[in-house]
Specification:
about 5% strand; 3-stranded antiparallel sheet; 6 strands; mainly alpha; 18 helices; about 425 residues; binds carboxymethyl coenzyme *A; about 50% helix
Length: about 425
């Protein structure tokens, strides 16, 4: 196949290089197009624009494939825990037993927050959304660790990575404790990553807290399936902020803001709210499917559709199976899980959803599991952020290390007024 593309602009022909990825994906390199022709490309929402060549995650939306560093998500979920997955994403290879133990040990040593950080929590209104708190406190890490903000110093980056990975669960759990007026529960370094998070969320000083191994396993899976998803909105935000050489805390804090939106990570909260609404409205699933199809109605089925997946979302399949298993084990039914399954069934048979290739995405069932393990709805997107953290870090590091790194600075086609005379205020 030709490794160049020819673009005809009027009478001139422009030859553009074609880049081929390791999975035979092909892209036209237009980086010199403006210099050579004066033209730019226009692609709102970056629907067809590759912003980077990356070696972290491979996605095939047509076939429903997701691989971290070459390993299928199903295999990673089967054989690794979240910390091992994080290592794989951040450092590029699966760890040896020794490397993994060293990584776990390093994370355990950084779980505490600086005591002065606790006072931030008193400044937030009690009903503040925990995503706002998460983003603010992560940004504030750069005020406490001013000795390690240089993106070009690998040692400073490494310590910041460990601090972020170790402290995010503590920051997140404290935001929940604040919202319900309970005392902060300190991390316990004898526990695993997921166990520690659950005890910081749910333990109280007045009675012992018993960890449920099923909850730990479910949380572990959810964090793994969220761990990376190549150039999504929040990861692209992290890259964009980091491209100006902003420090890693500032970059991740911005990514948390991007994740919060209901079209991205916020969809898990929005999805459960939608399922609750359907239930309160008598459980008429067809009515909501029709609303989603109505062009004049802004309502969308939350947890449905994906920019890239046009066949199935492999993460949704893993999560749905865990949902089934967990609820059966707990001998529990959840009416919104039943509504979710019915909604999926109706939508998947509907020509609108079939034609537009809209399938349940990762957020469709994750909320049901979070509910089952007692996570309050406002914390759903925070859990997504905890899962996505290693992916953000991996992309930030990959970008900093890239010899071709440049500040991200898209162009535009200007559609505003052409030059005009300015009338002074008294003459307007
Ligand atoms: N319900 C009803 N119609 C939909 C839906 C939906 N959930 N999603 C897309 N469509 C329709 C949309 O109206 C459009 O129709 P038309 O071509 O007639 O204008 C067509 O399908 C294409 O949609 P789009 O908005 O142009 O597609 P996109 O790639 O820009 O958006 C999306 C992708 C995920 C934002 C969108 O599918 C959506 O809003 N889904 C609901 C929110 C959601 O679940 N988000 C979580 C995404 S997965 C987790 C993550 O990565 O954050």
């Amino acid at each position: 196949m030709a490794d160049v593309a020819t673009l005809k602009i009027g009478e001139t022909e422009e030859t553009l290089p074609v880049i081929t990825g390791t999975e035979a994906e092909r892209a036209i390199d237009i980086s010199k197009l403006r210099g050579d022709t004066g033209l730019i490309t226009l692609d709102e929402g970056y629907v067809n624009t590759g912003a980077v060549a990356s070696s972290i995650t491979y996605l095939d939306g047509e076939q429903g494939i997701l691989r971290y560093r070459g390993y299928p998500i199903e295999e990673v979920a089967k054989h690794c825990d979240f910390v091992e997955t994080a290592y794989l994403l951040i450092y590029g290879e699966l760890p040896t037993a020794e490397q993994l133990e060293h990584f776990r040990h390093s994370l355990r040593r950084h779980t505490l927050l600086h005591e002065d950080m606790r006072s931030f929590y008193n400044g937030f209104p009690r009903d503040a959304h925990p995503m706002a708190i998460l983003s603010s406190v992560v940004s504030a890490l750069s005020t406490f660790y001013q000795d390690s903000l240089d993106p070009s110093d690998p040692e400073q980056v490494e310590i910041s990575v460990l601090r972020l990975m170790a402290k995010l669960p503590t920051i997140a759990a404290f935001s929940y404790k604040k919202s319900i007026g309970q005392p902060f529960h300190y991390p316990r370094n004898d526990l695993t990553y997921c166990e520690n998070f659950l005890q910081m969320m749910f333990a109280v000083p007045t009675e012992p807290y018993e960890l449920d191994p099923d909850f730990v396993e479910a949380l572990n899976l959810l964090l793994i399936v969220h761990a990376d998803h190549e150039q999504n909105c929040s990861t692209s935000t992290v890259r964009m902020v980091g491209s100006s050489n902003a420090n890693i805390f500032a970059s991740i804090s911005a990514g948390i803001g991007a994740l919060w939106g209901p079209l991205h990570g916020g969809a898990n909260q929005a999805c459960v709210e939608m399922l609750e609404r359907i239930r309160a409205d008598g459980g008429d699933v067809a009515k909501y499917v029709n609303m989603a199809k109505d062009k004049d109605n802004p309502f969308r089925l939350m947890g449905f559709g994906h920019r890239v997946y046009k066949n199935h979302d492999p993460r949704a399949i893993l999560i749905r199976a865990t949902c089934d298993r967990l609820l059966a084990k707990m001998d529990r039914t959840d009416p919104i899980f039943d509504i979710a399954k019915e909604l999926e069934e109706v939508a998947l048979k509907d020509p609108y959803f079939i034609e537009k290739k809209l399938y349940p995405n990762v957020d469709f069932y994750s909320g049901v599991i979070y509910r089952a393990i007692g996570i309050p709805i406002q914390m759903f997107t925070v859990l997504f952020a905890m899962g996505r953290l290693p992916g953000w870090i991996a992309h930030w590091k990959e970008m900093q290390a890239s010899p071709s790194k440049r500040i991200c600075r898209p162009r535009q086609v200007y559609m505003g007024p052409t030059e005009r005379d300015l009338l002074p205020l008294e003459e307007r």
